[in-house]
């Protein structure tokens, strides 16, 4: 992987936590915290916000306090839970009022994470420091990125097993984006999109993609058609943006269209580092983030309209 993609991913919301904290200057740390805070509070991608929350928790910088407190109100329950955990590692007693409110969150995992954070803060900063230090060993960029995703997965809600209420069939995936993209590249995009959506659907609580399980619980199927609508590249200030737009159509077993949802995600890289030959890889990054983002809307709709 080239140096450019490493730099680009640092600029992305998904990989802002890759630098080694012990080698960064105070100014660099401040800038990094600012970027992470911006991602956490403004990104449309739940995956990006989640990665930013993890990174802020690792940094244990006092400037992370306000954005992490704000993230306790995030629409994504996993982001809320990880933000609570991060506040615990930060160890600042100023977070206690917000964490106490979060103990009344509608989601069990957020309530539990908030209680654990409160306990950690009250036990003193040395405890939080000891816990955090285990995650700050020197790593390569790729290893740190993978570690951040694994941490995020560990912090994700651990719901008790229960009978599924929704049966989903990923009926079709297609690329209808404009442009002269080669057929091979389009197929690669579609495979990536299908893989990410299938994985997120399988992991969603109360949802099954298994026909045998659905038959056992007498669930009628929802069919999902997932389409890449468009990719856009534009210049925005000092950055080049790559945007992916998706459409999801939900229908029932009779073929009746029940809902159509659209969503997207953007990837930003500094203009002075952007090269056209890396655009395909950046589009795949944007695509994956877009799928993760729209997945939440799909799951919400399906859970509100069970079989």
Question: Describe it for me?
Answer:
The model is unreliable at 1-25, 125-150 and 155-161 (pLDDT under 50). This protein has 2 domains: 3-155, Leucine-rich Repeat Variant; 166-304, Putative neuraminyllactose-binding hemagglutinin homolog like domain (Double Stranded RNA Binding Domain, 2-Layer Sandwich). Helix 3 (46-59) crosses helix 9 (141-155). The protein is flat and about 55 Å long. A 5-stranded mixed sheet has the order 2-1-3-4-5. The protein contains 12 helices and 5 strands. With 307 residues, the chain is an alpha/beta fold.
Query: Compute the gyration radius: what is it?
Result: 20 Å
Assigned CATH class of the largest domain: Mainly Alpha
What is the string of helix and strand elements?
HHHHHHHHHEHEHEEEH
Q: What is the correct CATH architecture of the largest domain?
A: Alpha Horseshoe
What overall geometry do the principal axes of the alpha carbons give?
Answer: flat
**CATH topology assignment of the largest domain:** Leucine-rich Repeat Variant
Number of helices: 12
- Per DSSP E runs of 2 or more residues, the count of β-strands stands at 5
Mean pLDDT: 78
Helix content: 40-55%
Q: What's the CATH superfamily of the largest domain, by name?
A: Leucine-rich Repeat Variant
Largest sheet: 5 strands, mixed
Q: Tell me the distance between the termini.
A: 45 Å
Structural domains: how many: 2
């Amino acid at each position: 992987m080239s140096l450019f993609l490493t730099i680009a991913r640092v600029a992305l919301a998904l990989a802002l936590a890759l630098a080694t904290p012990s080698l960064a200057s105070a100014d660099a740390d401040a800038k990094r915290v600012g970027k992470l805070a911006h991602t956490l509070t403004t990104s449309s991608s739940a995956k990006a916000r989640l990665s930013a929350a993890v990174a802020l928790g690792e940094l244990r910088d006092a400037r992370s306090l306000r954005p992490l407190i704000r993230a306790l109100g995030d629409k994504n329950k996993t982001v809320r839970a990880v933000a609570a955990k991060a506040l615990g590692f930060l160890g600042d007693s100023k977070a206690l009022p917000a964490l106490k409110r979060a103990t009344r969150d509608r989601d069990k995992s957020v309530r539990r994470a908030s209680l654990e954070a409160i306990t950690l803060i009250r036990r003193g900063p040395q405890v939080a420091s000891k816990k955090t230090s285990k995650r700050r060993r020197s790593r390569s960029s790729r290893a740190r990125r993978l570690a951040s995703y694994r941490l995020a997965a560990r912090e994700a809600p651990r719901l008790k097993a229960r009978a599924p209420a929704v049966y989903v069939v990923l009926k079709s995936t297609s690329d209808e984006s404009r442009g002269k993209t080669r057929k091979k590249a389009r197929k690669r995009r579609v495979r990536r999109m299908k893989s990410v959506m299938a994985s997120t659907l399988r992991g969603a609580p109360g949802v099954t993609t298994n026909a045998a399980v659905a038959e056992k619980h007498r669930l009628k199927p929802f069919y999902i058609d997932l389409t890449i609508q468009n990719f856009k590249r534009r210049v925005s200030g000092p950055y080049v943006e790559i945007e992916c737009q998706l459409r999801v159509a939900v229908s029932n077993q009779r073929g009746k269209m029940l809902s159509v949802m659209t969503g997207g995600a953007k990837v930003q890289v500094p203009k002075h580092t952007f090269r056209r030959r890396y655009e395909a890889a950046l589009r795949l990054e944007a695509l994956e983030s877009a799928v993760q983002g729209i997945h939440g809307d799909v799951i919400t709709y399906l859970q509100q309209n069970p079989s």
